[in-house]
Amino acid sequence: MGPSGSGKSTLAHCINALIPCSIPGDITGELTVAGLHPQEAGVAGMAKKVGTVLQDTDGQFIGLTVGEDLAFALENDMVPHEEMHRRVAEVADTVQLTPFLDDPPGALSGGQKQRVSMGGVLVDDVEILVFDEPLANLDPATGKSTIELIDRLCRERHTTVLIVEHRLEDVLHCDVDRIIVVGEGRIVCDLAPDALLCGDTLERQGIREPLYLTAVKHAMGTTGSIRPEDHPQHIDTMNLEPYRSAVTEWYQKMPERTASAKGDPLLEVRNLTFRYDAFSRTVLKQVSCTICRGELVSLVGKNGAGKSTLASLICGFYKIQPGCGSILLDGRDISPLSIMERGERIGLVMQNPNQMISKPMIMEEVGLGLTVRGMPEEEVHTRTEQALKICGLYPYRHWPIGALSFGQKKRVTIASILVMEPELLILDEPTAGQDYRHYTEIMEFLKQLHDQTGLTMLMITHDMHLMLEYTDRVLVLADGELLKDTKPSDVLTDPATAAAACLKETSLYALALRCGIDDPAAFTERFIQYERSIGHQHGWQT
Amino acid sequence: MIKKFGIREVVAIGIGTALFVVLTEVMIPLVIVPNTALQPRMAIMAFLSAVFGPIVGGVVGLLGHALGDAMFYGSIWWSWVIPEAIVGVGIGLFAPRFKVMSGGFDGKACVLFNIVQVIANAVAWIICAPILDILIYKEPANKVFAQGLWAFIGDIVIIGILGSILMFAYSKVTGSSSTLKKEG
Amino acid sequence: MNKLIAYEAKNTPIHRLSGFTKLVFFLLWCITSAMTFDTRVLGIMVLAGAVILIISRTEWRQVSKVFGAVLFFMTLNLLCIFLFAPYQGCEIYGQRTELFHIAGNYTMTREQLFYELNVMLKYFTVVPTIMIFLVTTDPSELAASVNRVGVPYSIAYSLAIALRYIPDVQEDFHRIRNAQQARGIEMAGGHASLLNRIQRTASIIFPLLFSTMERIDVISNAMELRGFGKHRRRTWYAARPLSAADIAVLICAVLFTAAAFAVTFMDGSRFYYPW
């Protein structure tokens, strides 16, 4: 593992020979993988020994059906028809996809697609499996089962597994032999997990350590540190004896979290029921909720639970049938408003900034929403500059967008919505696929924006840390119904709700239980409160 | 002059065709007369030809037009599919000169692009399409040439404007930018 | 979402045929239809098409939308032919039998009606086969079939990729269009000038194009990692071996094409005119 730009993906690409065979570059030194030299064996040659699973599950699902995708490598190897079908059936069984062999990718969930990708490389009987950020696009519960599957494969097939990932706590769900930390192109350390977790390497490299360890460290303060022999790798098996009293004392000492004052209701959703057409299933059932001015709310739920549909209805992309509920903004029904009219009051930021950017220059892009509305050029200029200043992009205003980093592009898309001075900002998966450093950069920016302007925000997310650390309230959708409308800590310390939303309970919950604290939710609350008060190690920088 | 035909090109044809088919539903009407709308999908094909070369351009034109027409309109007008491929190949032949990927698509490249596209469109719509229409349907010459001329004008307008905009924008976004400075 | 004409799995004799057979049949059919102007041949082809459509149990809802589009374009085209060349039929058949006068230089002739009838029949020979081909051929099998017809497998695989990613690209497109519309960029409507409309279209298409270009890189890498293009040939998971029925259909199709050509060109001209 390592921060983005540290060279961890580059190293993985050297192992499967994409570097230098597909992506050119200079290589010195020697690399031997399973007895081969990748540079000489080429990408196809290495593929026999090393199976690589990439981050983008849609991009690497090439076949029209699950079966075809699993067979892809065999097809290229001219394996005869019958043998191919036999081997595909075997692999489908291993990755538990047999019932889905004839399904198109569109019918699968993210986790199933991930398993197809795994199966696609397993057909080749590889000796080494390389996973490039396998958890990046998965919700926590699916991530957990993915790690379990990887673990099983590793044991049953005696395969060497290399996981490139920054979600350490999720990876550590199963036993990992060694963790190699890469920083600025060098190997920083190569340690057993227990040893690594006790040091300060993770902190220095900007990698998030498991939350329960952070909590224990806070509780211990300067009086001591965690010892490797207590096996801090898993919260369930860690020896907590030496730390229990410190944690309990810390909990009692910490102030309770104060709820922030609520403003007037801004957005009200009333009894909303929706389906795409008369033949399809009901996507939303009698959903009612209120978002108040100045609130920061997260909307969670598994894929297909109706999160995106709800956002689309708020933005007016679909029409609500008469009698199927209503949406009110500032107390007024917004059904008569067009998409464009709503766009002036409700801003939507898409997940992938590249899907929003339509002009090559930053100033043009940010001002576009105003220009097309026929606003005078001077006013466009003033408001654009102001939005750029808020987003910390002012120094780059004359740059082409191509020169920006992912996080900066994200800020450009946010700025291009802010110029219209919306009252409500909806962010679709603002941090999906980002490592901790980028995640922190984006979220600290949003928090600062919220504190400065009091803008109301609704975030659609899978990220448990995001909802816990940054939002005050969470709406949980499950199968089209609003299951919970509560504090994030309540959701993440309630196994049933967490499961319904494809989340998992936070490890703070387990820590609190194991330390004999009777109210895990309160413990979680106080922990977050404390974290916020000391600030993040990696603040938002321009 | 023609780039090596590798996996990237195979994928570019596939994804390019998908894009072309999807954009079949996008039309910019010129006048009220139906079937005379500008087709932005042409600009996409021109872009892909200019980036990936003649084979990609030609096959995207051929496959995209045939699939798009079949899936949206239930019919394939072969006499219009083949000229489409000709435009793709024609523009693609000059792909290395446009330097879209390396950020070198400048005014000069744009002029060349437009000269090439006008010639390719002329060959396709004023010569090839009418001849095929006459061969297959024995349609009246004045009608098919009028149609061809109309298609020619529509195409050079949409490729000339939309195609150039897309190429300038793409070239700017992906091009190198080593001389940038932060400003206060 | 725009419903395109698409494959539906059913168990009919047509569905059971291999994609290769259907592709060869379809291509021969198109060539025959393009070449012949013999009303008898065209008539038989229209009837055969209708019969196959029934055997394949194609339902009206599957094709109604595109059928409407075909009728619309066909009518428009037939009208245009008459407007541009009211006596095209007379030229072709070398006769002029006036039926009734319409206006000015426009008089309806039997030859013109007969000629336009043939053009119409040509549409009706191709349209059902396209529909049948699309609704009964498993897209998975299509690439394998195209490869077997002799097209290089790299191009055949491009077709598979196109079919695989059309739904994804369409979804992206609609999402981007919605989001841009919320920002105030609308593609349709307004009294804007042509240039302005094209610029707005560019603002919606560019993000789509840009993310598509990114996708090309990801897919290329994924395919390379799994050995695409390693050998001169490749096998296909979805390919189906030819059955006896396939071979029978192939032989019939070839024979029919030969017969159609013979009938068409027997009298030295591809135009048949009974009077």
Notes on the structure:
The complex is a heterotrimer of chains A (542), B (184) and C (275). Chain A is of the alpha/beta class. In chain A, 42% of the residues lie in helices and 15% in strands. Chain A has three domains: 192 residues, Rossmann fold (3-Layer(aba) Sandwich); 81 residues, no CATH class; 240 residues, 3-Layer(aba) Sandwich (Rossmann fold), CATH 3.40.50. The C terminus of chain A is likely disordered. With 184 residues, chain B is mainly alpha-helical. The N and C termini of chain B lie far apart (45 Å). Chain C is mainly alpha-helical and 275 residues long. Chain C is 69% helix and 4% strand. A two-stranded antiparallel ribbon of chain C has the order 1-2. In chain C, a hairpin with a 2-residue loop joins β1 and β2. Chain C is flat. The mean pLDDT of chain C is 88. Chains in contact: A-B, A-C, B-C. The interface between B and C is large, with 61 and 73 residues.
Layout of strands and helices, then pairs:
The complex is a heterotrimer of chains A (542), B (184) and C (275).
Chain A (H helix, E strand, L loop, with lengths): L7 H8 L2 H4 L16 H10 L2 E4 L3 H4 L5 H11 L4 H14 L15 H13 L5 E5 L7 H18 L2 E5 L3 H4 L7 E5 L2 E6 L1 H6 L2 H5 L5 H10 L23 H10 L11 E10 L9 E9 L3 E5 L6 H9 L10 E4 L2 E2 L5 H5 L2 E4 L12 H10 L5 H14 L15 H13 L5 E5 L7 H18 L2 E5 L3 H7 L2 E6 L2 E6 L1 H5 L2 H6 L6 H8 L5 H15 L8
Parallel strand pairs in A: 1-2, 2-3, 8-13, 8-14, 11-12, 12-13
Antiparallel strand pairs in A: 4-5, 6-7, 6-9, 9-10, 14-15
Chain B lengths: L6 H16 L17 H13 L1 H20 L4 H15 L2 H4 L8 H31 L3 H34 L10
Helix pairs in contact in B: 1-2, 1-3, 2-3, 2-4, 2-7, 3-4, 4-6, 6-7
Chain C lengths: L12 H4 L2 H17 L3 H17 L4 H25 L3 H6 L4 E6 L2 E4 H27 L2 H10 L4 H31 L10 H32 L18 H22 L10
Helix pairs in contact in C: 2-6, 2-7, 2-10, 3-6, 4-6, 7-8, 8-9
